[in-house]
Amino acid sequence: MNPRLGALHPYPFEKLRQLLSQADAPPANLAPINLSIGEPKHATSPLIVRAMQDAMAGLSVYPPTRGDAPLRNTIADWLARRYGIARPDPETQILPALGSREALFAFAQTVINPDAGSLVVSPNPFYQIYEGAALLAGAQPWFINSQPELNFGYDWASVPGEVWNKTRLVFVCSPGNPAGNVMSLDEWRTLFELSDQYGFVIASDECYSEIYFDEFNKPLGGMQAAALLGRTTYSNLMCFSSLSKRSNVPGMRSGFVAGDASLIKQFLLYRTYQGGAISPVVSQASIAAWNDEAHVVENRRIYREKFEAVVPLLSPVLDVRWPDASFYLWAGTPYSDVDFARGLYSKAAVTVLPGSFLARPAHGVNPGANRIRIALVAPKEQCIEAAQRIVNFVSQH
Asked: Are residues 235 and 94 in the same domain?
């Protein structure tokens, strides 16, 4: 067996399952409400469903590794529209992928030399794929803790030079998971300058980029930041996006990678052997999704209404505020996040994710401790009911 598998940590939801299995059963008269998993529950647009149904003839052919040309062109057009940048070259700067998760994991295999004592800098808390990708590629993760006083962002200048000297890959997530914070242009400038100095690659996870609240204030993207700073070749930058959250199609497994053409070339070579090509059926449905914004605007409206209803209920009893974007609340708890989540489940039949499960102890602290992640993915009425139960739980316990 691959000995690196032994270095992997249990996934947060496995830890949550074990935690709740040891908890008292919730009251039988309360219907369970699960707000722990960031799985969109809104309906998929009929436009996307019809496009997939109409493309079933594509099941009879092998999909090209680089993706269908119409899909690559559609993604290039969407990137130009969304971020106000020059249209990326669909031949050299875009690669469709089976969702951002698959691509983020596989990309680490492309850029990391397992014999070089490589480090991968990861945000902390983080999406656990970053850690697993680093470990299975033969590198070690180095965690940079989120700072509440920096809007849960990161002090990149605090990373020691000896760490940067060994760093081959930096994962960033903007809008962030779990805090929903968006990187500013100044943060991007700092990270780009460090990349130029030390030569590491930046993998920008932007799967929440289309879940925001102000239609006139869209989250800044990595390629957009690069273009604004005159980095029009996107040197050492790869951006990862997905339709899962944007279009409520997590089961379709469709996303893309875009950025530095030289990195795309090497990643395509890797994926020629690794696989991961998008079926023509999914490709046609993806084209329909990327070309339509009406369903995405409606999706944001539904999330906005849930935040408008839930935040005023929770803010008097928990340390909670609107995120910049995403569908999560990153709420502070009055005592241990693990005990809080266990008690909330037992007493109120509401499931949330302990923040410490999303982070690692680093530099003397676990930056997820005494926080919970609440995913407002359930229907509005259930989110409101869950919030009211949380209020009652805090008041009583």
From this structure: yes
User: In the 3-class helix/strand/coil scheme, how is the chain assigned residue by residue?
Assistant: CCHHHHHCCCCHHHHHHHHHHCCCCCCCCCCCEECCCCCCCCCCCHHHHHHHHCCHHHHHCCCCCCCCHHHHHHHHHHHHHHHCCCCCCCCCCEEEECHHHHHHHHHHHHHCCCCCCCEEEEEECCCCHHHHHHHHCCCEEEEEECEHHHCCECCHHHCCHHHHHHEEEEEEECCCCCCCCCCCHHHHHHHHHHHHHHCCEEEEECCCCCCECCCCCCCCCHHHHHHHCCCCCCCCEEEEEECHHHHCCHHHCCEEEEECHHHHHHHHHHHHHHCCCCCHHHHHHHHHHHCCCHHHHHHHHHHHHHHHHHHHHHCCCCECCCCCECCEEEEECCCCHHHHHHHHHHHHCEECEEHHHHCCCECCECCCCCEEEEECCCCHHHHHHHHHHHHHHHHHC
Taking residues 231-255, what's their average pLDDT? 97
In a domain, 37, yes or no: yes
Domain that holds residue 332: 3-43+295-396
| pLDDT, mean of residues 229-237 | 98
- Is the same domain home to 222 and 317? no
Share of the chain above pLDDT 70, in %: 100
Q: What is the mean pLDDT of the chain?
A: 97
**Domain check: are 237 and 343 in the same one?**
no
Q: Are residues 68 and 13 in the same domain?
A: no
Q: How many domains does the chain have?
A: 2
pLDDT of 305 reads 98
